Amino acid sequence: MSDDRLGVQTYLTPEEAKEFHKLWAAGFVGFVGTAVVAHILVWMWAPWL
């Protein structure tokens, strides 16, 4: 087995880990952006403060 794998039982090469992180981060940003827009729309409909 190659020693270029990261972590314990991840089975990812450094390149694969970087690609996975890039996709995960983009998904997280999309989720947070959707949540922010949803909160703004709900606040415009029925302000809670």
Describe the structure.
By secondary structure, this protein is an all-alpha fold. Helices cover 65% and strands 0% of the residues. The chain contains 1 helix and no strands. The protein has one helix spanning 14-45. 0% of the residues are buried. The model has no long low-confidence stretch (mean pLDDT 88).
Tell me, what's the shape?
rod-shaped
Q: Please identify the structural class as seen in this structure.
A: mainly alpha
Give helix and strand order, one letter per element, not per position: H
**How widely separated are the two ends?**
59 Å
Main β sheet profile: none
Range of helix content: 55-70%
Based on the model shown, name its key terms:
1 helix; rod-shaped; 49 residues; mainly alpha; single chain
